[in-house]
Amino acid sequence: MSNYHIKHLEEYYQVYRKSVREPENFWEEIAEEHFIWSKKWDKVLEWDFSKPEVKWFKGAKLNITENCIDRHLATRGDKTAILFEPNDPNEPAENITYKQLHIRVNQFANVLKENGIKKGDRVCIYVPMIPELAISVLACARIGAIHSVVFAGFSSTALSTRINDSDCKMVITADGSFRGKKTIDLKGIVDEALESCTCVENVLVVKRINSDIHMKEGRDKWLQPLLDKASTECKAEIMDAEDPLFILYTSGSTGMPKGMVHTTAGYMVYTAYTFKNAFQYRENDVYWCTADIGWITGHSYIVYGPLANGATTVLFEGVPSYPDFGRFWDIVEKHKINQFYTAPTAIRALAKQGTELVDKYDLSSLKVLGSVGEPINEEAWHWYNDNVGKKKSPIIDSWWQTETGGIMITPIPYVTPTKPTYATLPFIGIQPALMDENGDELKGNQVEGRLCIKFPWPSIARTIWGNHQRYKETYFSAFDNMYFTGDGALRDEVGYYRITGRVDDVIIVSGHNLGTAPIEDSINEHPAVAESAIVGFPHDVKGSALYGYVILKDAGESRNHDNLRKEINQIITEHIGPIAKLDKIQFSDGLPKTRSGKIMRRILRKIASNEMDNLGDTSTLLNPEVVQNIIDNRL
Ligand code: WT7
């Protein structure tokens, strides 16, 4: 266990230096000591960012579920692997031990096989936060099928786009889901999505809300009766280190989402190692990440990272506001949570409620608080630190991305002194660089630029499903021989990093990554709309909210504007999901454009954020006159 747990800052620097000077030796030692392999690698790393191509543990053979489940059976068989906390606080929590998880994953894996799924097939998982979500993910991994989890808050159009893009043969879903007081008709959404998917042969349906749903003959099957008949043994498929483990979609600068492909060995090694160190997880701790498994945070730090360490990981079905805004704290007290990982948007929403509810519960079990998904503002940081952590649990503000697979920049709790709004130091093995607009690296401290990574780390996404060219253009073309993150960052006088936000056309709303293009494409489908542009503006709970500028066709001019606004948000909800709805919609006569016809979002962003005094030079625009008109009609 030599270099698995980092204990003090000096050790961090020591291990960090080794990980950078001899990355191959460093990761080889971790991989040797802490995982089980059917065959060891022939070569630790092979890479070329100009292609781009990255291979870790080349030639190794393994199955990630043997590392996440089987190898714990002898020593941790009766330990809780997954602790399920239902939406309704009166429904009992469920403890799934490692032994039980083994049985349930095997049964599920056998059902997949009996329904025609084999190694390499893609399976779409559209399941709410119930145990079957984690189990279906692991069941795919058990047999070498590639899972593509789609967040169960996405609309039918978003779902069908993702199913078709990766040619999924099967969809796993539920009759419906509970969300606070509401239920959501998931199966109805799947049925609608599948009207435009010919690749799907079977749909397996988990019974969760007991609703009366339509089951299509020959396609749809209830899961439970199949599980009941399935064998509890399923030999793990032996996978190559670089075989795809999963696809997870993230927004991009065009309408089509990017199916990020993560492979097996590197992803396993990195998520396990970061989990252990970034959360300082100790045996018998109870760890809770409030994210949904539909996002990368859930993949890496609810399922794979924790289970690879034999941890107890909480899976929460509900929302922070149900039955009241004390629910998170109620769960912390009830399950004696030691590590708690959530998003700034949740912290801000809870902070708005005051301190009465957070003071009502015993939070003394907490040792580490985490934040992820967007920059955490100073006020939220202090509220979290003072009222949740009682100034004794370090906050780890962890920066990373769907594409990076695991945490990249973060304090190590009790090791790295924290600083509000700073993600602080690169994690072991991570070599960040700040670049200026000319493509030169900004050396030294007290600099600000575009955040890149110079050297591959084990869990970097290897490609975009079906579109390697787009992968290259998006991440490896802005700067030579570097992975470009899309974020801006600064490095302070001691070398701490602060993420300053996206520098591309991605807007983060409540921690959800939204591309402007897909939203604009949906709006433009409204028959009365000629053109539109979306920008972000500051919002006290969501971090950023969406502001839309819409130009109407003649036919729309006479329509009631409030009705049009509702219809536009309705279209967005249908195409993407409610998370992408616009907070403000301004109808405008034109959009500021450059002479080459590109929308100048910078100006629109400033107007939406009420920063009209520094719009910069607008005289070079094709149509400078529209700017004043937009300002005059600002909402
Ligand atoms: C983008 C990635 C990583 C899991 C959740 C989001 C922003 C993420 C932080 C942070 C400032 C952050 C970045 C990044 N982001 N964490 N701690 N501080 N910004 O994954 O949906 O792929 O979004 O989220 O802008 O690029 P994602």
UniProtKB/TrEMBL annotation:
Biological process according to GO: acetyl-CoA biosynthetic process from acetate
GO MF annotation, one: acetate-CoA ligase activity
Pfam families in alphabetical order: ACAS_N, AMP-binding, AMP-binding_C
Keyword presence, Transcription: no
Sequence ranges assigned to domain AMP-dependent synthetase/ligase in this UniProt record: 70-461
Keywords: Acetylation, ATP-binding, Ligase, Nucleotide-binding
Protein name: Acetate--CoA ligase
Biological source species: Polaribacter pectinis
Gene for this chain: acs
